């Protein structure tokens, strides 16, 4: 019951951390494209950015769950084999002796586990932001974009575009044959049509 209460206390901090990671990822991605995304984001966009990232990419959810499971299983294996030489070398900083039982050792490992997970998530989100931004920038410069949407703006002319991102107020896209990123308010676009992959 105490563990459940601790988890309930830590959930808001965990969500706040995910919001910071989402902001960091978006800022790094758009910085490479010359856009200060915070100027174009509402509070709602900021609050849902980590959930939107995870919902739009099932692979990201799988990676996050895999990382958590890996560290958890690694901890369990390390504690179960605490009497073996390889485990003693890894746990050397704890000065393991015969008096330390496995339950105490497990409790001692919790702070390490609680530190490694946020660091791994930080590396993951920063890497995703950097990688995505870099790929988009190169594709724009070489005009190697897969145009995934067709828009009809107030002018009524349909245009094939590569959609970089959408938030509650703006579309960020590159029109076919153009190297400039356009930022259009949502109200200025009449129709947004997904182009089916062939």
UniProtKB/TrEMBL annotation:
Q: Which UniProt keywords apply?
A: Membrane, Transmembrane, Transmembrane helix
Q: Does the keyword Transmembrane apply?
A: yes
Membrane spanning stretches: 15-38, 59-78, 108-130
The name under which this protein is listed is Uncharacterized protein
Instruction: Please report the organism this UniProt entry assigns to the protein.
Output: Chryseobacterium wanjuense
